[in-house]
Amino acid sequence: MIRQSLKYRKTITVIGFLCLLLLVYLLLILKRDINDKVTSHQRLSKKEERIFESEPKREKHVKLAKMELDKNIHSTIKELQDAKARIEHLEKKIAILEGRIPEKYPDVKYLGYKERKRILVTGGAGFVGSHLVDVLMTQGHEVIVVDNFFTGRKRNVEHWFGHRNFEMIHHDIVNPLYIEADEIYHLASPASPPHYMQNPVKTIKTNTVGTINMLGLARRVGAKILIASTSEVYGDPMVHPQPESYWGHVNPIGPRACYDEGKRVAETLAYSYAKQENVSVRVARIFNTYGPRMHVSDGRVVSNFIMQALQNLTITVYGNGKQTRSFCYVSDLVDGLLSLMASSYTLPVNLGNPVEHTIEEFAMIIKNLVPGCRSTVATGAAVEDDPQRRRPDIAVAEANLRWSPKVTLKDGLQRTIDYFREELSRTTFYNNQTYMDINVKPHN
Ligand SMILES: NC(=O)c1ccc[n+]([C@@H]2O[C@H](COP(=O)([O-])OP(=O)(O)OC[C@H]3O[C@@H](n4cnc5c(N)ncnc54)[C@H](O)[C@@H]3O)[C@@H](O)[C@H]2O)c1
Predict the structure, then answer these.
(1) Which GO terms describe its biological process (predicted)?
(2) Probe residue for ligand 1, chosen from 130, 151, 214, 285 as the CB with the greatest number of ligand atoms within 8 Å
(3) What is the C-alpha separation between 247 and 232, in angstroms, rounded?
(4) pLDDT (0 to 100) of residue 386
(5) Per-residue pLDDT tens for 264-313?
């Protein structure tokens, strides 16, 4: 009995032990499961945490990208606005240019092949040259203007741009020129003292080398050539009025010599080519000429006085005002040049208006022609080598060309004043400057 109860006790103990082992095992499994779940939960949170942490960075990137895009859009808009402004500016410029180009050219006569000449005008964009071009064009000729625009302006001839009879060549006549022409009006040379004194060597070259080039061209193509000489070949004359036979009184080393002597050599060259090379030459000795398209900073008496009168400034007379000048209106001069070219007279011819005025009188005439002018007339220091008397003897022109000036001083001045008034209205002045402050040097 005892032995049996001992046997049961052993069995129960073993079973109990086994149950305990099983329980421990189950507990261990349960613990591992719980741990696994806790770890996986923790892992999820870290990912979430990372996502959470990265959120502001992404926003920052998005913000930066947006800012970059805004900047690009802004600069593109600015570029477009700039381009639009530029286009508008160019459109305005084109409109102005279109306005300047006449839809209809001035009336031009039709000339047949045999009558129509090819005429070269050197200095054709200048004051006298452009008026000459107008007449030659309206007569129906083919006109070629050659100019280096030193004192000339395209504006003087722009009303012919595009016309089938008109051509313009930007060229300095100090260099040779090879073109075809039937007639040459050789006018290229600065004409007013401030311009020709600005570069005296160039003035001499233009009147000597340039004239040789034009005479050479005339010889090559068999053209008739007219040389624009000047009353300055008489210098400060000792004979009054000056006939063509007067040889002059020129200071060869004075401030005006580059022009005076340059023109004297030009005349000598013309007659040398005529004698030696049989070139058909005409020589016009031009006296003071005035009119629209004169250079406003010409610095000579007409432009100076008119500009001063129009701006109510003191009209300045250099010297005592008793020196005399005679002034020819530009259309009269052009008629004279055309008549001379057409004539068979080959010696020099004076072209000018013999009506003589003292500079003092002239100042008063201009003052009285400008309505409401409040200018006073004052005298200044005399200018070196300023000729005291100037008046053409035009008997040769009257006899050989049947030419004499027609336009009265009053009419001519009135037209010139209107032109200068228009020029003044185009100019912008700063700090109370006047035209004289900007441009003008003393010369009568
Ligand atoms: N206007 C006058 O009162 C007057 C008086 C006497 C003589 N002239 C003579 O008449 C001619 C015309 O005078 P203007 O009053 O018309 O003068 P301007 O200055 O208005 O015209 C001269 C023209 O010649 C051009 N020119 C100058 N040097 C040149 C060069 N090396 N090559 C090409 N072109 C050149 C200028 O650009 C200008 O278009 C000149 O020869 C001048 O000496 C004029």
Answers:
(1) D-xylose metabolic process
(2) 151
(3) 11
(4) 77
(5) 999 999 999 999 999 999 999 999 999 999 988 888 899 999 999 999 99
Q: For 130-160, how does the pLDDT look when each residue is reduced to its tens digit (9 = 90+)? A: 999 999 999 999 999 999 999 999 999 999 9
Q: How far is the CA of 275 from the centre of ligand 1 (A)?
A: 26
Residues 372-391, mean pLDDT to the nearest whole number? 86
Instruction: Give pLDDT, residue 389.
Output: 83
β-pairing, 224-230 vs 142-147, is: unpaired
Residue in 357, 260, 259, 287 with CA at minimum distance from that of residue 247: 260
Contact 399, 339 (CB under 8 A): no
**Three-class SS state of 141:** coil
Q: What number does the ligand 1 atom closest to the CA of 205 have?
A: 31
Instruction: For 118-191, list the strands marked E by DSSP.
Output: 118-122, 142-147, 166-170, 183-186
Which atom number of ligand 1 is nearest to the Cα of residue 195?
19
Nearest to 417 by CA among 314, 306, 331: 306
Q: What pTM did the predictor assign?
A: 0.78
| Residue bearing the bigger pLDDT, 88 or 132 | 132
Count of CB atoms situated within 10 Å of the CB of 401: 21
Handedness of CA 305, 256, 270, 395 (dihedral sign): positive
Choice among 84-98, 223-237, 328-342, 366-380 with the minimum mean pLDDT? 84-98
Pocket-forming residues, ligand 1, beta carbon under 6 Å: 122-123, 125-129, 147-152, 172-174, 187-191, 206, 210, 228, 230, 286, 288-289, 295
350 CA to centre of ligand 1 in angstroms? 17
Burial grade of 302 (CB within 10 A; 0-12, 13-18, 19 or more): buried
Taken in order of first residue, the domains within the chain and their CATH numbers are: 115-439 (3.40.50.720)
User: In this structure, is the dihedral angle defined by the CA atoms of residues 50, 55, 56 and 59, taken in order, positive or negative?
Assistant: positive
